[in-house]
Design brief:
Blueprint (H helix, E strand, L loop, with lengths): L4 H26 L17 H4 L7 E3 L6 H6 L3 H8 L33 H14 L5 E6 L6 H13 L3 E7 L2 E2 L2 E2 L20 E5 L3 H16 L5 E6 L16 H8 L3 H12 L4 H24 L15
Parallel strand pairs: 1-2, 2-3, 3-7, 6-7
Antiparallel strand pairs: 4-5
Length: about 325
């Protein structure tokens, strides 16, 4: 079912807020305030078409790229930036960096190894099944992660046990600077679904409404106890692998994909349909910029953990 005009406007706002957050994080990496790097998801905000449909009591495990999972679930940008800056006011008290868990919003964090969060999704989904609930776990991963043993074992377990997992593969065509044909024999990751007897669908990941439609069906299937599904979102990251990385991709390829910018496409469609006006577009952008400036100030003004904090949070 197509989202209502109000839902479309909310979805567009989330996409813009995510983009501005990422631009803010990228600038903080360049200034040296965020240690390490930030793996930007700019260009992949169409994934919000799936995330936005989760209920407050659903769960999300996420890939290492982008902020749309947090923004889409309702995480506080102030606490996100504080965490990235290593401040004690962050979600993990400055100890997690990009490895952020926001349990209030059902975001379970991620493993330090690629694909390590797939078994976590299976574990949570098993708990849901045992308790007789109808929540859903959405587990997002990149196409490079499709080659990991943890991913395949988890998909198999979810299928065998009929678990309420929606697997979402963000296929941006590159693992670092390595193009997909050099590390995977299957160009459509959704084709892997047949090996686990679950539905698999390829979706234009830069068309947020197409993502919404495909995810709606997969979520409903999982919630009804009919087992897992695999969605593959064909998309493209507009930034290098990391904000401090050299981008070795073909500039012409990147230019062609920028013309498919999911936010620009959605904005044009909303203006054409009358859901969005030029004035509202400016207002949403200005509000997002002001929000992230406030978040940046909060993070900068927050204190670092004390040395004694190193001995806290070791055990639950």
């Amino acid at each position: 079912m197509k989202p209502t005009p109000a839902e479309q406007l909310e979805l567009y706002t989330l996409m813009v807020r995510s983009r501005v957050f990422e631009e803010t994080a990228g600038a903080l990496v360049v200034s040296g305030e965020i240690p390490g790097s930030w793996l930007s998801g700019i260009g992949q905000e169409g994934t919000l078409g799936a995330i936005h449909q989760l209920r407050p009591d659903d769960y999300l495990t996420y890939t290492h790229r982008g902020a749309y999972g947090f923004i889409g679930r309702g995480s506080d940008p102030k606490l996100l930036l504080a965490e990235l800056l290593g401040k004690r006011t962050g979600y993990s008290r400055g100890k997690g960096g990009r490895h952020i868990a926001d349990l209030e919003h059902g975001i379970l964090g991620k493993s330090g190894t690629i694909g390590g969060h797939a078994p976590l999704a299976v574990g949570v989904a098993t708990a849901i099944q045992i308790r007789g609930g109808d929540q859903v776990v959405m587990s997002i991963f990149g196409e490079g992660t499709s080659n990991r043993g943890t991913t395949h074992s988890s998909m198999n377990a979810a299928a065998v046990w009929g678990l309420p997992v929606v697997w979402v593969c963000e296929n941006n065509g590159y693992m670092g600077n390595v193009p997909a044909p050099m590390y995977t024999a299957v160009m459509d990751i959704a084709d892997m679904a047949v090996g686990y007897d679950m539905p698999g669908e390829v979706v234009d990941g830069n068309d947020v409404l197409a993502v919404h439609e495909a995810a709606e069906e997969a979520i409903a299937r999982a919630r009804a106890g009919q087992g897992p599904s695999l969605l593959e979102l064909k998309t493209y990251r507009m930034r290098p692998f990391g904000e401090t990385s050299t981008d070795l991709r073909d500039p012409a390829e990147a230019t062609a994909w920028r013309a498919k910018d999911p936010i620009r496409r959605f904005r044009s469609a909303l203006i054409e349909s009358g859901v969005l006006t030029d004035g509202a577009t400016v207002a949403i952008s200005e509000a997002a910029t002001a929000e992230m400036e406030t978040a940046r100030s909060y993070a900068r003004d927050s204190s670092f953990p004390a040395p004694s904090d190193a001995f806290e949070d070791l055990y639950a």
